[in-house]
Structures are given as C-alpha cells and as structure tokens.
Amino acid sequence: MPLRRAHRRSIYSRGWILALALILAQGPAQAAGELDDPAASLAIEATAPSTEARDLDARLFRAINLKPGHKDALDPLLLSIMPLGDRTAIAIPLGLYAWGRMEDNKQLRDAGVLTAAALASSALATEGLKGLVARKRPAERFGDAQTRIVGPRAADGRSFPSGHTSNAFAWATVLADLYPKGSAAFYGTASAIAFGRVRLGAHYPSDVLAGALIGYMAGRFVVSNRDFLMRREDPPTGGTAVGISRQFHF
Description:
- The protein is mainly alpha-helical.
- The protein has one domain (2-229): Phosphatidic acid phosphatase type 2/haloperoxidase (Vanadium-containing Chloroperoxidase, domain 1, Up-down Bundle).
- The protein has 11 helices and no strands.
- The protein has helices at residues 2-34, 38-47, 51-65, 75-81, 91-103, 106-133, 138-142, 163-178, 183-199, 205-224, 226-229.
- α1 packs antiparallel against α2 and α8 packs parallel to α10 (205-224).
- The radius of gyration is 21 Å and the shape is elongated.
- The two termini are 14 Å apart.
C-alpha cells in the first residue's frame, strides 16, 4: 500500500510539474506582449522559455492544421466527436447514472458519479488557467487567412489549456479505471478529440497537451479517492467504535 501511494504521488508530482512548465511557457510570452513598459516586457521575456520552443509549437500547429481551404476526410469524423469534450459531455455521467439506476447496476451508478466529479474538477482547473494565462487562439495570432478553421468558431477566445481535451481525458481516465477492457477506446477517443482541436484550428499542440494532463490528473484524483467520494464506511476498528476513513490521496 505505501508503495502504491508513493507511486500515485510520483505520478501527480510529475504531471503537475509538466503542467506548470507548460503554463510558464505560455504565460510570460503572453504577458510580455500586453505590457507597454519596454523594461518590464524585457524582464518577462528574459524569464520566458526559448523562442525556439514557442516557434516549434506554432510550426506543429501549422503542420497539423493544414492549409486554409483544404478539405480533409477526417473533418466530419472529428466534428462528430467534439460534443464528447464540450459542455454537453455532462450527458456522459448523467447517462451512466441513469443506466445504472434502470439496470440496478452499482458500478454504472458509481461511474456516473465519478465521471461527474472528474469533469467538475477538470473544468475548475481549466477555467482557472484560462483566466491566468489568457493565451489567444491561433486564428487571432495568424489571422483567418492563414488558419484553417473548421466548424463553429470557439466563443471563448482563450486558448490555453484546451477545455475539450481536459474534459475528454477526465471522463476517459475514470472509465478506463472502472472498465480496463475499454481503455483503448476511451483514451483513443480522448486523443482523437485532442488531435481534432488542433486539426480544426481551435488550439495549439501545447494547449491540448496541457488539457490532457489536467484531465488525466483530475481523473486519477477522483478514482484514487473513490471511497471518499462514494462515502463508504470502513469496518469497525475495535470495540463498538466505527471507523470512517475519509482521507484524500494525492
């Protein structure tokens, strides 16, 4: 048990370190462009990641996004799965819970509760970071003439991190833990959504990478604290006392 908890802490630590690195990679560059004070801008740029790293993100975006006006055979498929990552993804936990009630299946009901918790946790982290980083979407940087935008334009102009991707990986991580045989399908769908956000012109690659990390970490947090979230009581610990363990695991 100690090893398993230590392993979980190691996964969380590495994930948050990488997420923090991605945040720092976007935040300083964005802030520098919004300051009027040249000295302040220079100071921020001095602490920002290399220009090469930011340029690589832009080059990868252009390569995946393809040229404006290009008709891609994957577009209809990618557009069809986008609702699994937007706000309508709440239908996943609602559907699972309702199905579990109809079939009297506790695991399905648990899946509904846990995926809802993961989506809520992921959304809170994602929205907080969007406000903190305030990175503009690719079309605002390159212009519509140089960006291939497929489907509805995102109403939220903040690009980092990708909310669709964080939502998708949040529910996928929970379901992969509860139903291991479907892991490839769950993570495959989430990965396709992440790829689609870049392919369809809504996000940079670093946006979806950060979103995937946030969603995965939210999902792991929820499944690691499943007993607490489902409010299960531990057996009596001695005498007539009843021990109730409600401890978060990180």
